[in-house]
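sorry for the late reply, my laptop died twice this morning and i had to redo everyting from scratch. anyway the thing you sent over, i finally got around to it. pasting the sequence first so we're on the same page, its 346 residues, then the predicted structure underneath. double check i copied it right bc i was rushing
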Amino acid sequence: MTQDMDLLCWHEVGIAVRTHTDPDSAFSKNVSGDPLVMESVLVGKVSPTWIVLYGAPRVDVTSNILDAHLPRMCRTFRERQRETLIDTMQTVAAERKHELAISLRDDRYELERLCMQVMTLSRKVEGDREILNMFSRAPEFIKAKATRTFVEMMRLVPSCYSHINVVEKSVLAETYPITLEHDGGSYNFEPYVVEVDLDKGKVLISGGTECNGYIHPHVTDDPNNICWGNIGHLVSRLTGELDLHGLLQLVHQFLHSYNSSDPFQKIEKWDPDWVEDEDDNDSYCSWCDDYGHDVSECDYCSWCEHCDQYDEHSEENCPNRPKDEDEDEGEEEADAELAEDTATAG
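ok and here's the structure:
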């Protein structure tokens, strides 16, 4: 290359040789490098990444200079490129490992959610098909079913409900006061009103004893917001089939139950004297910035004795792990092979 700016740009990506340079120019005075002397004559400058030759040296002089310096420069440049790639890949691996772990976790949750949606939708399609077949029957069949349903439904009074009324397109059933037993304690709730909206095919629950926006451990003060758990599909099917007797029995059992592993709100909070233990608070993981476990239980990090801290690598894969003799010999052999390949290429 013969232009000054070409050298300044090229040295960042490879090895450059600059010829026909004026030794008295500002470029020659400012460019970094060691003096290059051939036969007691200053013929240029040399650095790890470039050679600057003054004037137009003879071909044999130029050839001797290149033979003397280029192989070493190529080896140095190649080793520097190797180290840069190693550092870059280690940095990328460390950054992406944590990102991918979080992404995989989130994708797994999303996959579970979608599978649940598919299963729910499949059940709904099958249920709707059965309901459609029933509703397609003759009016006499519907009338007979309604009569039978009313008789069966009224058998739940007074055993399960204090009274049941049909109001417009809804059936309203009121329970007695309910007492739930859990872990040696008794929790009393005011009567609930169960509304079955026949037109919309929905079940709504109101009443009870309100606490922090909840009227039951599995029901909020919004009558539509109910955590049915694993009976949700059965509630939907019975509602769609207008099986009021079976539906009201199921809701009655639901209101008399408590699942301590998955409530909207812990039942203990209906006890005004209850104080939550610190151990009951959701644990927090400082590594993945998530709740539900602490750092000692995290799947995405482990304690490293070499680093004396939690990290995303294990002790075996720790970059600070002392190397044994076999590994040192392996690296020395790799470096020797690299040097030999470079010398051959030069």
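The longest strand covers residues 161-167.
thats about all i looked at so far, will dig more tmrw
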